[in-house]
Write a structure and sequence with these properties.
This protein is an alpha/beta fold. The protein is built from nine helices and eight strands.
Length: about 250
C-alpha cells in the first residue's frame, strides 16, 4: 500500500499568494477550521447582498453627467422590482413602456448602457473610474446619451441600441457575484444591436475590478474591440478569433 503523504504547507502558501481560490484549507477532524468556515460564510453573505442590493441610479447618473458634461437618461426594465427581476430574467431584457417611449433615434455611432445586473455594487464602484479611462479613447466617436438602467440584463442593450439607431452598443453591467468577487463588472459589445441578438454575437470583457482587470486594461480592450467592430462590421465569435490573430501578428 502506498504511503499517504501530509499536505505540503509551503505549496499551499505559494498557491494562496497567486489566487483568491480556497486551496489547502485546514481541517479539524472532518470539518473545516472555524476561521475558514467563517470566511466562507462572510463571502457568501457578501455575494448574496450584492445580488439583492438596489442601484443608487440617481447618484450614479449625476456622477456620470458631471464627468461627461452631457445628458444621462435613466431607464427601467419591465421588471418592476428586484424580486421580479431575479425570478423573471426575460423582463430584465426589455424596457418598460415609459422608458421605451423616452428613446428616439439620432445620428449616433455608439451607445454606452450602464445596467445594475446582478451586482449593483460593481456598477457603483467601477463604472465611473472605467469611464474616465474609456472616454478619452472614444474621441471622434459620435456618442448617444449614456443610459443608466435599473433591473437590467445584458440583452436590454439591444433594445436601447435599436431605439437610438446606433451602430454599436456597450453594456456595462454587474456580473453574477462569486465567493471571491461580489463586485465584478462586465462589458458586452454588440454590433448592430437589436432584439434577438444572441450571446454568440457579442464580445465580453469580464472581471473588471481592482483585484482583476484594471480600468486602463479594460478601456484599452474596449477601444480595440470597438475599432475592429466598426471596421469589420461585426462582433462576437468571429471578431474574437480575429483579435487573437491580430495580437499574435
Amino acid at each position: 500500500m502506498s504511503e499517504i503523504l501530509p499536505p505540503d504547507a509551503s505549496l499551499f502558501s505559494r498557491l494562496r499568494a497567486i489566487t483568491p481560490a480556497r486551496v489547502g484549507l485546514g481541517r479539524t477532524g472532518v470539518s473545516l477550521e472555524t476561521r475558514d468556515l467563517l470566511d466562507f460564510q462572510r463571502a457568501h453573505a457578501q455575494a448574496r447582498d450584492a445580488v439583492h442590493a438596489r442601484l443608487e441610479a440617481a447618484a450614479l447618473a449625476a456622477s456620470i453627467a458631471e464627468m461627461t458634461g452631457g445628458s444621462v437618461l435613466r431607464l427601467h426594465s419591465a421588471a418592476v422590482d428586484r424580486a421580479t427581476y431575479l425570478q423573471r430574467p426575460d423582463l430584465g431584457r426589455k424596457l418598460d413602456e415609459a422608458s421605451r417611449a423616452s428613446l428616439h433615434p439620432g445620428d449616433w455611432e455608439l451607445a454606452l448602457v450602464v445596467a445594475d445586473g446582478l451586482s449593483a455594487l460593481a456598477v457603483e464602484r467601477h463604472v465611473p473610474p472605467l469611464l474616465r479611462e474609456l472616454l478619452p479613447l472614444l474621441e471622434g466617436w459620435s456618442l448617444a446619451p449614456i443610459t443608466v438602467v435599473e433591473q437590467g440584463r445584458v440583452a436590454i442593450g439591444d433594445e436601447i441600441g435599436a431605439a437610438l439607431g446606433v451602430q454599436l452598443s456597450v453594456v456595462l453591467i454587474g456580473e453574477r457575484p462569486g465567493l471571491s468577487s461580489p463586485d465584478s463588472l462586465g462589458a458586452y459589445i454588440t454590433w448592430d444591436p437589436r432584439p434577438g441578438r444572441t450571446d454568440a454575437e457579442r464580445n465580453c470583457i469580464s472581471n473588471i475590478r481592482a483585484e482583476g482587470l484594471s480600468y486602463s486594461q479594460a478601456a484599452a480592450q474596449l477601444g480595440f474591440y470597438l475599432t475592429e467592430a466598426r471596421r469589420r462590421q461585426l462582433t462576437g465569435i468571429a471578431l474574437k478569433e480575429d483579435s487573437r490573430l491580430l495580437k499574435e501578428g
